[in-house]
Amino acid sequence: MFENVDAVMLARIQFGFTIAFHFVFPAFTIGLSSFLAVLNGMWLWTRDDAYLQLWKFWVKIFAVAFAMGVVSGITMSYQFGTNWAVFSDKTGPVLGPLMAYEVLTAFFLEAGFLGIMLFGRERVGDTLHMIACLMVAVGTAISASWILSVNSWMHTPAGYSIAENGQFVPEDWWAIIFNPSFLPRFAHTLTAAYLTTAFIVGGVGAYHLLKGRAGNKSVATMFSMAMWMAALVAPVQIFLGDAHGLNTLEHQPMKIAAMEGHYPDYPDGAPLFLFGIPNEEEGRMDYAVSIPKLSSLILKHDLDAPLDGLNSVPREDRPPVAIPFFAFRVMVAMGFLMLGIGAWSLWSRYRGTLYTNRWLHRAAVVMAPSGLIAVLAGWMTTEVGRQPYTVYNVLRTVDSVSPVAAPAVGASLLAYIVIYFIVFGAGVFYILRLMGKTPTPRDKGVSKEDGPIRTAGITPAAQVAGPGNLPVE
């Protein structure tokens, strides 16, 4: 069924599908690990049980999401050898060490302290348990930094030379790691992860408030903390997004042209298209709704600043327009809706109606997945906008794919789709079930007086001690 389909397109679809599944879990757990560290620190500082209840509530969700992120990341990495072997061979001397350092400095740090964080509260003491919570949070941020350094280098390659065999050879590791787009991309993505978590936490808190659980202090605290994060971080994220856009304009102007839908050159100021249908064949925007010169004002802070369009480069060097154009608008729309929710929460807090404003709670529930939608839309914008290259302006996508026939790629794609929807669908369903439960004052189950749980159900002493028997010493 795939004999007449382009193998390169199938390989791109497969990688896009698997990374979309993977991306949502780190985007959630990066922020959630920091939230858990804050909750644990607040409990140690105040000894308010509301923070401890929230920590126990969210740590279960974190454990499931973290596990699914690890599993989806492992399967995704295999595609570098199966579908993108040429890319792996040519970029391996540069990207291989960076990926290895991510494992050595970040993944091992997270994995080493994760068990203490999840199960060590009663075993290692408050101080070491707090350190474990901090190390897991720091590890997720370090992991993101290495991955984003790899990704940024593919967008703005630096610090390398090309050997006679076509491989990229590292010349300056500082230039490679801190390539021109790394810092704005890292700041924008990390802040997006924190904002994503804030809206998920806020949505869960709003759900419980709508269920009449405002009297539960943990629920009220959860919603209040999330709304503070939304109000403070959303405007920062918009500022960082603008800085990232200016960096992209400097290093990848054709990506910006695709995002803005600019086909012709604009020597006297470019319009901002609020809506339109990209016409690739004719090189224009159909049914356009635009504001004159606003794009030049946003991108260059000058109404009359010139901007180059897609028609200024050969067709084979242009990125596709439809996906970056629409995905970028989805991301921006989500960002301004988040800003609106944050401002609304501040007004409600000022009015004393933060926990009783049911319309705010309904909006927060609807906006709960907005961060995930925004990060996926942003990822599609930046990655599709990099085409037709895997390493921008140096290595083309068609020259990066493995010599694998389309039916083989298509068969593995179908297998991924079926397995992912079953496995990760079940995982997401379980996470939603956990979110639907109310944070309780104490976990149900055995108490300390019951002793340790044994696989046989009883302790060795209980097997011997009993009526007429002396306890074992």
UniProtKB/TrEMBL annotation:
The keyword Transmembrane helix belongs to this UniProt entry's keyword annotation: yes
InterPro entries: Cyt-d_ubiquinol_oxidase_su_1
Keyword Transit peptide: no
Superkingdom of origin organism: Bacteria
Transmembrane segments: 20-45, 57-78, 98-120, 127-148, 191-210, 222-240, 321-347, 359-380, 413-432
Protein name as catalogued: Cytochrome ubiquinol oxidase subunit I
Pfam families the record matches: Cyt_bd_oxida_I (PF01654)
One GO term describing the cellular component: cytochrome complex
